[in-house]
Write a structure and sequence with these properties.
With about 70 residues, this protein is mainly alpha-helical. The chain has 4 helices and no strands.
């Protein structure tokens, strides 16, 4: 079990080591999706909770921290 998780994390780190800007770009994409949803669905749960905004910020910050570490 732990061996499988270790191998999975190793593969993910190898994948992200060569694509350092991928996670921040995905985070910015989620932030732009949130902006567009503000105009398309003004009263929906996703826009009132700003779900994609928060998710995008978390992914972008984690991506920047991983890019710096790798």
């Amino acid at each position: 079990m732990f061996n499988r998780i270790s191998r999975m994390l190793d593969h993910i780190s190898e994948f992200l080591a060569w694509r350092k800007g991928l996670l921040p770009i995905i985070g910015l994409f989620f932030i732009l999706v949130n902006l567009l949803l503000q105009f398309i669905l003004p009263g929906a749960f996703l826009t009132s909770a700003n779900l994609f905004l928060h998710l995008g910020l978390i992914i972008a910050i984690l991506g920047l921290m991983l890019a710096w570490a790798l």
